[in-house]
Design a protein that fits this description.
By secondary structure, the protein is mainly alpha-helical. It has helices spanning 7-14, 19-41, 44-60, 71-92, 101-109, 115-130, 134-145, 150-157, 161-182, 187-198.
Amino acid sequence: MRAPLNESSAFTLLRKGNSQAFDFYYNQYHQAIFANIYKIIQDKTFAQDILHDVFLAFWEKKHTIRSADSVIGWLYVVSQNKSFTFLKKKLKESTILLENPKVVELIMETPEINEAFYQKQLQILEDAVNHLPKRKKELFSLCRFEGKSLEYAAATLGISEDSAKDYLKQSTRLIRQYIQANYPAEMSMMGIVIIMILQ
């Protein structure tokens, strides 16, 4: 009987084209990625379509993902970008209305999405998150990448919900500061991602 998959073994098998490894990642992350997409576009039907596109891209681009630790970040960034591409198209068609003019402006200014754009965003985001203190990094990853509630994250880390809320605020501030200090030229490109992280 084969041992249950974990992040490391699933990643190795995924790169060999193993469908069970794909299922492992889908089951592990599809709810969090759907929540991330829905937070942006606010439409369940379209969010489901984009979720399908994200995991299709995940399968097709599996050889471009650097490591098991990069998977959730890759899914997160790609889901953000696909959601913004969808919104940009709908805004051009004037079929949706967004209330926040700053978000509209950033969406319309976003460059065309390609693999290099994904990889650059992922690299910057991973770098910023990896520079967080250990506990803040754990909490940020649970809440923002895995879609867990503050209550769940607080219980997992053995801290109060108030502390968890404070850690999350500090983490988003530190990520913004880190990107501004270390990637000033890319800050406009990352602007949308940062805004969505802060919501």
